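Supplementary Methods. Inverse-folding protocol.

Structures were first reduced to a discrete structure-token string of length 420. This string, shown here, constituted the complete conditioning input.
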């Protein structure tokens, strides 16, 4: 990884990769929250200085700088933080800036996707009307659980009934797509309680559900509480039972898994996130937003004051810059591709591995064959090797249901044999 000075601007980085073509996806990070949830490791803050107007003005400048680098947008995703905490009049300003600086034709036509993350406690009909008028056609509502006791453990402060109200208001406003986020393996949670959460989410008749196992990210309050012994982690067997129950229950309801933790009705997958997992390019705006263009990766500095104070023709200060690297790109293709039900195209992976490290392609094929024999991975067409070359015509590798249970370990093993 190439570490850059803290005050480097995205302008110098993007000038190096702008020739790769115009980017068609955009991520925007809104950092404000009214309360910091204990499990969350995304950059967010409880703002006591009323900097929302200044943030939107600064964000508008950044969007103006990024606009010329974008083609017709296939997707916009606004995350946080709590994007729905921004006041409606500020959202109007933000949506107007997007409309002026970017080609939203695909989104307006219903071909593209424009998602905003929402907290059910901060959603109002006025706000959702503003969203719909500005082109938002998908909302992702953070339910996490419908059980008040488990919400308290997570430090989520919303009335579970407001999840359904938010979904219904979105529909009334004309936002035709909705998703619900859930978390399982919460300390003290039983399998029956998780099944009840799934049933309540399905009763909302949304087309998309994200179901994540609780993780204890370093630096979060949840990790600190675990270390202090305030509660035990969920038993691994119970967590596995919850994982399998999720698959069975959601499939029964017509929502199939298309990624490790994401389930949808056919055609209702989150197109923006698919772009991430397929290693497509996206621009990034807002503090802590991460971007990927031309094989380069970067992250806007996750400090609101720095973001507000730094002006380089609108571009933000960045950190954690990774310049294009074929080895990293190959590893990322494996890591993210195998998260998807569609899997990963084998031929470029095998040929790329062999070209970067002779022998790595053969080791990779051997590991894949072993995983297949264990029922953890599926393959399509037969792999062929001859004349000192490796071919994998039309081959795709994808994890089985059993494989998804241990996806992280499988990916680590495949990456390990590359020898990079």
């Amino acid at each position: 990884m190439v570490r850059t000075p803290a005050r480097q601007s995205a302008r110098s980085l993007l000038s190096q990769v702008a020739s790769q073509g115009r980017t068609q996806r955009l991520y925007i990070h809104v950092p404000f929250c009214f309360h910091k949830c204990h499990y969350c490791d995304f950059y967010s803050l409880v703002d006591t200085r009323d900097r929302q107007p200044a943030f939107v003005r600064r964000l508008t400048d950044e969007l103006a700088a990024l606009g010329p680098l974008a083609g017709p947008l296939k997707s916009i995703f606004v995350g946080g933080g709590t994007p729905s905490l921004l006041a409606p009049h500020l959202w109007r300003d933000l949506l107007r800036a997007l409309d002026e600086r970017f080609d939203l034709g695909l989104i307006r036509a219903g071909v593209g996707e424009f998602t905003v993350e929402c907290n059910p406690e901060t959603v109002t009909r006025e706000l959702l009307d503003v969203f719909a008028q500005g082109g938002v056609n998908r909302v992702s509502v953070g339910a996490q659980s419908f059980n008040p006791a488990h919400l308290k453990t997570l430090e989520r402060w919303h009335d579970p009934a407001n999840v359904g109200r938010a979904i219904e208001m979105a529909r009334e406003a004309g936002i035709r797509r909705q998703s619900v986020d859930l978390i399982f393996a919460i300390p003290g949670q039983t399998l029956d309680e998780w099944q009840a959460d799934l049933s309540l989410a399905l009763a909302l008749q949304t087309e998309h559900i994200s179901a994540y196992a609780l993780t204890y990210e370093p630096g979060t309050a949840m990790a600190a509480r675990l270390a202090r012994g305030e509660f035990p982690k969920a038993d691994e067997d119970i967590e596995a039972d919850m994982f399998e129950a999720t698959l069975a229950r959601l499939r029964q309801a017509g929502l199939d898994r298309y990624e490790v933790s994401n389930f949808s009705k056919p055609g209702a997958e989150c197109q923006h996130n698919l772009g991430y997992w397929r290693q497509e390019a996206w621009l990034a705006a807002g503090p802590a937003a991460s971007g990927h263009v031309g094989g380069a990766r970067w992250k806007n500095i996750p400090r609101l004051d720095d973001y507000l104070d730094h002006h380089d023709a609108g571009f933000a200060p960045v950190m954690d810059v990774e310049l294009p690297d074929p080895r990293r790109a190959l590893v990322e293709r494996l890591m993210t591709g195998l998260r998807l039900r569609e899997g990963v195209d084998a031929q470029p992976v095998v040929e790329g591995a062999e070209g970067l490290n002779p022998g790595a392609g053969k080791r990779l094929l051997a590991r894949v064959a072993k995983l297949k024999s264990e029922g953890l991975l599926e393959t399509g067409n037969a792999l062929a090797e001859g004349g000192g070359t490796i071919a994998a015509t039309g081959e795709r590798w994808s994890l089985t249901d059993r494989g998804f249970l241990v996806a992280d370990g499988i990916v680590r093993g495949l990456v390990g044999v590359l020898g990079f």
